[in-house]
Specification:
five-stranded antiparallel β-sheet; single chain; six-stranded mixed β-sheet; Jelly Rolls; Rossmann fold; 10 helices; alpha+beta; 19 strands
Length: 474
Amino acid sequence: MDAVVDVPWHPSKLARAEVVMRNNSLYQSFLLCVLVMGGLSLLSLLPDYRTESFSFRRVNLLADVKPDVIDTAAVAFRDSLVVAQDSVKQLVREVCPPGLTCIEDYSGDSTALNKFYDALMAMAEKPRAVRVAFYGDSFIEGDIFSGSLRDSLQATFGGRGVGFVPITSQVAGFRYTIKHAFQNWRTSSIINRTDSTAEYGPAGYCFVPMEGNWVEYRPVRRRFLNDFNTVKLYYKNNGNAILNFSVNYDTTAKAFPLKRSKHLQEWTYRGKRLKAVHLSFDGYDSLRLFGASFEDGAGVYVDNFSLRGNSGMSLSAVDRSMFARFNQYRNYRLVILQFGLNMVVEDSLDYRGYVQRMVRVVNNLKKSFPQASFLLLSVSDRSTNSSGRFETMNAIPAMRNAQRLIAQRTGIAFWDMFEAMGGENSMVNFVHARPSLAAKDYTHLNFRGGEKLSHSLLESMLYGYNRYVELHQQ
């Protein structure tokens, strides 16, 4: 057996071990710092990047010690907006009653809303449907803002019905203007393109039925929305699809073969005071659906085309022929555009690229909806936490001015929603109001806030309309 020799222990051995461990820790810490600094240096080389649902700001390692550098191009862009639009804004201020945020007309001959006003005037001589397409993002999701605007317009000019509704919706349980349930659908949108076979409809969605599919709509107990009389379905069918349709909880559905066509089609059912509509589809392999509409005769209808995360630029993904075909059925007389919040990045002042792309989008929409007037709403106020206080984001006025430029370059009408809310820090006032008018994300209105702001828009629209009527009666 080998002998075991005990080595005497000495305190100096522990001291040397501690020194070795401390040196290793210092080395590891130094290495970690080098890696972090190297990573941040690489990130600082990347430019600012922004999409409709994601934004990245370039890392600046010297932000706290480096003096502010003025982006002269952005400042020149911002200043050019003020100069270019001063004359229109001044004219609006001169004729606009106190307390009203009047619509600015950049048509060049004060005709930006004439097509819409003409359609409203014509209803007095011959009752007809006057339809409004309201395109926006999550700001109008669930019929916030647009629902109140619809109600007020129908109270003034007539009309019964919620108008266009998608097949599925992320906020079906949240929307107060219709009861909506569905099951077994594949949904794709121009924002989340989850289906490579999708063909996007006028609302930016494509709905594909699957085995066991169904969708049900029921009216709500609100004026102008408490029953259904006319149901319309919008689809594209390349095969032998069949619609199974039942009303008022009837267990026996009627089967309707859907027209086979390469183009968007409209299917219509007319009933009387329907309390529920249930749809399902067979033979659906080549069927694409885009939405349904609920209405009743003459009056004004506001179709809500909200799409969460949409900046407006994605509308270019919808084929112009799809818009044009849909307009043959709907014959829109006013298109309202509400975008911008999804493109706002804190402290960013340069939106030249956004202006260029949105000008193309608006001009394409004008070609698709030739009988419609166009009204662009500016961004609302939006707050951010700055040193413990919520204040208006620096980028909001810059985006608002950029949207004015879009209106000017496309010759359409513009409404300053930021000013109508109350201007700087108005979102803080909306959130802290009792009862509150906005969500605590300091970005979105609630239904009370939507109603308040939509009434401001309605007053501005009616002021312009009444002046138009007076001029034509002279």
